[in-house]
Amino acid sequence: MKMTHFFKMALMGIFAVGALAACSDNDDNGGGTTPEPEPVGVPTIELSGVQTAGSEASSLTFTVKLTDAASAKYLMTTSSELQKAMTDATLEELILKNGSDLSSEQLGTALGGSLDLVFESLEPIMEYTCAIYAINGEQTAVKAVSVSTANGSAGTGTGTDAYNAWLGTWNVTSSSSIVDDDPLSFTISIAELQANQYYALTGWGISEVVGTQAVAARFNPEDGTFHFVNEQEFGEFSSNGMTLMVTYIGVCGYNDAWTIVSGEYSGLIGTMAEDGESATFEGETLVVKTSSGQEMELPVYTFDFFALQVGGNQVGAFNPAPGFTAGDYPIPPYTMTKSGAVGAGKTLRTYFAAPQAVKAGYPVCLLSSDVRAMTVAK
């Protein structure tokens, strides 16, 4: 059993986030002279990239200097993926759709001097492109710079047979589920992240985010088991006046319902069958200490994406993917059968700059605006 020291209840009351339309409180269209608008300056961008000083070889720093910018977005991805994506869209369109906004603090730093965007745990010997899109009224500017990582110390290449056995596409079936008490089935993809150490896992969960956002999972070389990694953070966004952190976190059984539990634990551990074509996953039992100091045992059911309020206790649950019901989380044990090799990804992988990707350390696909229209706890 694992001991954790922080406990968060999943809140039951949720509501859909809606868009607010700004309206003028002055409907007077009477006479008078319409003043001429003040001229707006065209934004300028200075952008350069280098290997991060004193870092592992897999970290890059892009330095940004801006003038006359009211807002700006950045996008960072591998150069090869960007070139493929630009066959269907312009660079500006890709930044607007997949990019991340510079915060007001970041924008002020870039305007007042220079802003360093640091990207960590990248793939070695790989060219990356960082692009900046600056906006000032109707005036815009865009600039991109490409830099390659060196031959880093991260494990790459072919892993051991035990490590490689987990790679591929798998069909997963749970024993039951919280709401309907029926087995749930879904398909996951396991790809190499750092050979003999970590995997990139896509598809485990019931939210609409799991199909596009890879998470890290750990390989234990001593016994060949597969371990989930709890509380992985994927960057902040704002909704309803709150700052929320997109987090992949363990879902536990609690009072015939569910809750999420913070802390360092595996939660779900997979064991490969001798044939290498099937596997099982068992859930751990956590010893959780509540705010009053009381200890209780909670079984880990699954993992999924939530939005946790930064500096607060609000919890948002992302909408379920098609075919699933909100709150009907699967219950272990799980059985898995291999259905094929890992195919090429269709989603443009982009990256959060540190410290936004606090615990990421692997490719982070920025959530689209559609996915960000989530449900948030009251």
Descriptive key words:
disordered N terminus; 378 residues; mainly beta; globular; single chain; eight-stranded mixed β-sheet; disordered C terminus; eight-stranded antiparallel barrel
Short overview:
The chain has 378 residues and is mainly beta.
Outline the fold blueprint:
Layout: E1 2-4, E2 7-8, E3 14-16, E4 44-51, E5 60-67, E6 71-78, H1 79-85, H2 91-98, E7 100-101, H3 104-112, E8 115-119, E9 127-136, E10 139-148, H4 161-164, E11 168-173, E12 176-177, E13 185-194, E14 198-202, E15 215-220, E16 225-228, E17 232-239, E18 242-254, E19 257-261, E20 268-272, E21 278-283, E22 285-289, E23 295-309, E24 315-317, E25 330-331, E26 334-340, H5 369-372, E27 375-377
Parallel strand pairs: 1-22
Antiparallel strand pairs: 2-19, 3-27, 4-5, 5-8, 6-7, 6-9, 9-10, 11-13, 11-26, 12-25, 13-14, 14-15, 15-16, 16-20, 17-18, 18-19, 18-23, 20-21, 21-26, 22-23, 23-24
What does this 3D model show about the protein?
The chain contains five helices and 27 strands. The chain is globular. The relative contact order is 0.19. The N terminus and C terminus are likely disordered.
> What form results from the Cα inertia axes?
globular
Overall strand count: 27
Strand content range: 35-45%
Report how far the terminal alpha carbons are from each other.
33 Å
The percentage helix is under 10%
Radius of gyration: 23 Å
How many H/I helical runs?
5
Structural class: mainly beta
Mean pLDDT: 78
